[in-house]
Amino acid sequence: MTTQVTATANARRGSSFLRIAIALQTLTIFLQAVSAGLLLSSSYGETLHSVGARVMYGASMLYVLAAVLAWKPGGGSPRPVWHASGFLVLASAQVVLGIAHVPSVHLPLGVLMFGLSVWVLARR
Predict the structure, then answer these.
(1) Distance between CA atoms of residues 73 and 124, nearest Å
(2) What is the pLDDT averaged over residues 91-106?
(3) Are 18 and 62 in contact (CB under 8 A)?
(4) pLDDT by residue (tens digit) across 49-73?
């Protein structure tokens, strides 16, 4: 009986951490859009966008960690792990495209990532 209560509490904690990680990822992607606008209009925009890219990538890695922690100990569905891994792949593509200065793909991919992240957050 106590192991069932403990498992339920761990699953709730894992689910809460997962929601926080998704929210953080969504926020960092949104802030990247803001810093992209600053990139076009201010001298410090490039630095802000570059730092934001690292933070957004870290948030994507945190999302993967949260998904694994919510899945493994709690015995939940592995689907969030696949979603989180997909976001990490998209974030990796964003970094590569940004460094290569390919805005024709970088910008639409950023919009897609934001939309998908909001969608996943709304479903949680």
Answers:
(1) 19
(2) 96
(3) no
(4) 999 999 999 999 999 999 999 988 7
On the 0-12 / 13-18 / 19+ scale of CB atoms within 10 A, 117 is buried
What are the structure tokens assigned to 49, written together? 């966008």
How far apart are alpha carbons 49 and 45 in whole angstroms?
6
Amino acid at 101: H
Q: Two tokens at 36?
A: 């992209």
Contacts of 103 (CB under 8 A, 6+ apart): none
CA 103 to chain CA mean position, Å = 20
- pTM of the shown model: 0.85
